[in-house]
Amino acid sequence: VRKNSSIYNFYADNSVRENNSESVSRWRNPSLSSTSEYELNAKNSVGIVLEYFDSKSNTESEAFGSTSINSVFNNSFTQDQNANGSSRNFGANAFYKYYDKEKNRILDVNIGSNYFGQYNDDFFVRQTLNSQGTSVNETGVITDGQNRNYFLKVDYTAPVGKAGDTFEVGGKIDIHNNAIANRLYGNKLTGLSQYDVFHYEDQISALYANYSKKFFDKVDVRLGLRYEYID
Fold first, then answer.
1. For the chain, how far is it from start to end, CA to CA, in angstroms?
2. Is the separation of the CB atoms in 65 and 107 below 8 Å?
């Protein structure tokens, strides 16, 4: 809860302006995560990772102001604002791992998806009173964002010879689909765009291979090649 009160004295025209405001905000953010892994045998295991986060918020604000000149009323305003928001994040990752301790061979496979959504509704009302009468200005903005991500990754590492050299090869596919919709509402929208959508998609695919070699047990030299495709 926030409150503010102020008085301004302007000696140039002997005017006084008074402002009072109060804002109350509430929010909650529950979250949950879980990791499970099952060993099929001494060399193979599978598992899953789950993450969930949720957030909701609400803010109500009220403000009042008045101006007088030579102790005579000139104008006043009342202003209300109500903002509601929510966001949600969910991630899931399933994995498989092969690990041969004797031959030091490792195979990692990961597949998963992530989702993030965010929704906000901000409504603003301002009422002004002066010698010309009363005017009301209402403006609201709704934003709805949906972000999705999908990925697949495979990585294999194996020793080469008996000198401690290693060879690694793998690949990854990463897909994004992001959309943000915006809507404007109120009573004074002339000349304004009332509905806009931002939509973005991309896909990144990559293949890589590298070879590591040790010299004198102190120097590690790695030579690699990576191919990447972006759409």
1. 48
2. no
